[in-house]
Amino acid sequence: MSRDPLKAKENTPAATSQGAEKEKNPYGPDYPKGGMGGPANPKGGKHSKWQLSDFDIGRPLGKGKFGNVYLAREKASKYIVALKVLFKSQLQKAQVEHQLRREIEIQSHLRHPNILRLFGYFYDETRVYLILEYAPKGEMYKYLQKQKNGHFDEPTTSKYIRQMSDALLYCHSKKVIHRDIKPENLLLDMKGDLKIADFGWSVHAPSSRRGTMCGTLDYLPPEMIEGQMHDEKVDLWSLGILTYEFLVGKPPFESEDNNATYRKIIRGECHFPKEITEGARDLVRKLLVKQPEQRIPLDQVLKHPWIVEYTPASENS
Questions:
Q1: What is the pLDDT of residue 59?
Q2: Is 138-316 a domain of CATH 1.10.510.10?
């Protein structure tokens, strides 16, 4: 079954005529912008603008639906970054310009060791470029698949879930709901630490409750499937799914067809292989609770015995 994100109309801008498209930039009046700070921006200054000639372009790092990611070096500072190149025609065809703008606005303001930095962005006639922190160890999903038995051991899983919980606690403190947690949206840095890398379905929701189904089917919480309003607690459910997938190698409700997956999620049918310890099972069960308000909160996840057991002493003090 496909692990692609589901489609939602909430994130599509209103259709515009050809004439209106020329007058109004769908990426916002501030494009391009070079004053976002960070080591990849030696220019500083409110009016400085990045351009492609500011970078030496290296090998491709990955391919996405709307473009490619390349290793790059900013010429003036010699700083290594990942340059994400998105084709405007593809973005417009899929009607996701608004979603991209929201992703940029959210990610550029987040500062956490387990969240990939967005240093800046610019565009030309045909493409939009995102200047991102480079994560040398690559995609979490590929790393998971390469494991001997297709899953992580418990100390490794506990470490990643601790880092994920800390990053989500920070996001929620900024009123940001991620809404699409899964291994495909995570990267690993040089030290092997987790980085949340994709905020394509994220939303800044000070009003706290949303009504759109989005994210990836295996990770959808019951409230989204049943068409109810949702808040930041959707990320708690997805964290439970992620914990299970790291430990077992596949999501707990995976099925041959979508309807069967829906039914399993609503029923909460979660079965563990016998080798999964009681501590790990307890945390997953406390996250995969149908009633959102009854899910274990993130600050308590960080204090859960199974997380604490594998937390380095230096981080416990």
A1: 96
A2: yes
